[in-house]
Design goal:
globular; about 110 residues; 6 helices; mainly alpha
Length: about 110
């Protein structure tokens, strides 16, 4: 894990630039962003996406649900959770969340 003095928001922006090819590096960047500022919920969303891309669907679901408890209207997190539900074969839950997203974002 690389240590840096950058704020969590800067780490998450850099993380987005890394891409999915380097999931392990991305994981450590997201973890460090969470450590630096646990209130910056985008870091948790990013970690959920990383878990999903790595195939850790249960962990992805858990962390994304945690963010939704704190920010129930977070459209980005809802969208990512719908993808996780779909990947888990939980089509009905994925569709229900997608319908909710469509209502929030017509």
């Amino acid at each position: 894990c690389r240590k840096t003095d950058k704020p969590a928001a800067a780490l998450v922006q850099e993380l987005a630039a890394i891409g999915v090819r380097q999931v392990n590096d991305a994981y450590w960047w997201a973890r460090e962003a969470i450590e630096r500022d646990p209130r910056f919920l985008s870091s948790y969303n990013t970690l959920g996406v990383i878990y999903r891309h790595h195939g850790n669907l249960q962990e992805a679901e858990q962390i994304l649900k945690h963010v939704l408890e704190l920010e129930p209207g977070n459209i980005e997190v809802m969208s990512n959770l719908a993808l996780v539900f779909n990947d888990e074969g939980r089509g009905a839950e994925s569709k229900a969340l997608t319908r909710k997203l469509e209502q929030l974002q017509p």
